[in-house]
Amino acid sequence: MNDPDINIRSPSQGVFYAPWERAFQRVITPFEEFIHRQTTSGLLLMAAALTALGIANSPLAGAYQDVLHLPVSIGVGSWTLDKTLHHWINDGLMAFFFFVVGMELKRELLVGELSDLRHAALPIVAAIGGMLVPAFIYLAFNPEGEAARGWGIPMATDIAFAVGALALLAARVPKALITFLVALAIVDDLGAVLVIAIFYTEDLAPAWVAAAGALLGLLVVMNLAGVRRVVPYFFVAVLLWYALLQSGVHATLAGVLGAFSVPARPKFDPAAFSAHARRMIDRFDTSYTPGASIMTNDELRAVVQALDNGVVAVQTPLQRLEHIWHLPVAFFVIPVFALVNAGIPLELATLGTTMTHPVAMGITAGLVLGKFIGITGTSYLALRLGIGQLPTGTRFSQIAAVSLLAGIGFTMSIFIAELGFEEQPELLLMAKTCVMSASLVSGVAGIAWLWYLGRRR
Fold it and tell me: Which of 30, 87, 123, 144 could form a disulfide with 184 if both were Cys (CB 3.0 to 4.6 A apart)?
């Protein structure tokens, strides 16, 4: 019987394709891969949010809430950890999201747009302005009381939604503008992580904080000692997550701390890998028997395995893990988070009252106006003072239009709202509603402006 796996041939003799494999043959840069995945993630995020909204405003709303509050426990012997499904997703699954965010931050600081101060100055200054102005606007509406805890909500930019929206206009905007938004959003993510770590922590347990510090120190020692295998880092990071969970500091920060400990040094430099690969190819050619299958040639398989090990060793653990984890986080973790947290019951009769509440006005004004004023204003001052420079081929009007897209604050804004208003369900519901509506307004306005500017160009 013929094996179907060996009957699928390309027009080029000796090359085998499964039906779906041709789409993956094009060589793309890591940045192009990043943009493609952020665009797709943004679309999935939108679909998940709309699905959650539909379920929450349907006869399935009761079942939806029952699933969110479903108790889930893990345990070994007498030790157990009990959380609802909602908490497992927000405290556990989102740690992987913060892990990818941390790796993106580290890469950008080492070799990306943020590694060169001349190029990094403008997006850094713009991001700081885009965080501070929305926070001050929110506090102007909510200066005191429980509502004041939501000041961090309008500070955040959703990198998947914002970059995905800009990528839809890739033919009308210079590539440097996309790079500017990515750098700005990553600095924004760093600011959001610091805000969560410093201002949205519960009562601290000193013993567990000390344990978390010791585990973080162990990760650093492993990095300095040259440990490149990722499994030891994974186990220590899991322990770090549990220690932070018990300490009062939000457990998802273990993802960022773990990411910063991942080594960014390869085993082989490019020259050494090139020499290694040439030796392996020479041995491959010597061992190859025309017409014979590789499955019957042990020497050939050994050479291929050695070559595969070399391909792994010439990459840094940081870039390998970012490549591996970006896909499940973008296509699974973030959509699941949206599906769990975007289920907002809408009551049209009280919508007008809701939108005039100080919390609603602070979030809406912060995301729509605060981001625009903060990013555009600080960018203008930075350029006038000679602190930064416009990205190549861009105009200041495009920077202003991008500042509207930065008002899309879905994932991180909702996450901060969950932390700030955990004990105030009415304020939490109001905050989520306004994050989604303000993000929609900012996104549509930014896309329309950029489309108009692209048409003029």
Answer: 123
Spatial separation of the C-alpha atoms in residues 417 and 375, rounded to whole Å: 22
Percent of residues, the chain, with pLDDT higher than 90: 34
Whether pTM exceeds 0.90: no
Whether 412 contacts 156, CB under 8 Å:
yes
User: What pLDDT shows up at residue 173?
Assistant: 83
Q: Locate tokens 């289920």: which residue?
A: 343
Average pLDDT over residues 144-160: 90
Which residues touch 28 (CB under 8 Å, ≥6 apart)? 36
- Residue ranges covered by each domain of the chain: 30-200+347-456
At 290, list the tokens: 């025309």
pLDDT in tens, 273-291: 788 788 888 888 887 777 6
Q: Which residues pair with 76 in a beta bridge?
A: 79
Domain 30-200+347-456 has CATH 1.10.275.10: no
What are the angstrom distances between the C-alpha of 59 and each of 62, 265, 338, 345, 399? 7, 54, 20, 11, 44
